[in-house]
Amino acid sequence: MKKMTKKEIEDFVLIHNIRIENNLWIGERTCKTCFQIVIHSTTERFFTIRNIKKSTNKSCLSCSMTGDKNSFFGKTHSKETKKQVSKSRIGKACGQDNAMSNIRNREKVSVGLKEKYKSGDLDYLRKIQSDFAKKHHSDGTFKTYPVSKIELDIKERLSAANINFESQFKINSKPYDFYFPEKNLLVEFNGDYFHANPNKYNANYFNKKKKMFANQLWEQDETKKKEALDNGYDFLTIWEQDYKKDKNLEINKLINLGFKRLRFK
Questions:
Q1: Nearest to residue 130, comparing CAs of 34, 221, 210, 226?
Q2: Distance between CA 205 and CA 209 in Å, rounded?
Q3: Is-above-0.85 flag for pTM?
Q4: In the chain, where are the structural domains located?
Q5: How many Cβ atoms are within 10 Å of 92's Cβ, its own excluded?
Q6: pLDDT in tens, 100-115
């Protein structure tokens, strides 16, 4: 690669908005295919400039690695080549010979991936992962869903009290946190942040994790509750705020089940 003059470097830095953020040198270029901004980041300005310069006329990852743009598109390994590849990898990249055994390398990869996700360069991968998870939760391949520490605490307390319940009970592929067969009752535990507790957030609050406004989260939860009611179940919501304020009160609601059709809380 031709060596750049000082003036060329200064112009290059301006054109590609190269700057330092959080101890990383960040730069931008435009994908020649989709014309979206692609972010490059390294620990040294020189490397960021070099990487952008080498990639100036290239497509972003999502444009260059999908479908027939993938160099291996339409090809398959034969049994023989599979054996050859497997044999060639024996003893390689194991233990200390694996680059990922070095914590600094792991940190570099982690930082790089976070920047790529943040820039949107890996949005296509995020969608693939999301669609994959939804499909396999729907068809029953995946049996479990993420469970919070408080949900686990509730499960332990209910089990200790010998209360009959099912967790992650499904209606039309939608999972509900708890189901109490004797009362035909479904219970959802709502975290204050992820479900935008109305006592803490206004309707226009934007949840960065869910990428939704509070009123959209409320509508989503309302739709889920309506589906439970339409299918003949009673329904109860427990908010994180209430649980942390008085665990015994909220747990006793479930242990005693001494209430009548708490459908609209």
A1: 210
A2: 12
A3: no
A4: 6-72+80-126, 149-256
A5: 8
A6: 778 888 888 888 888 8
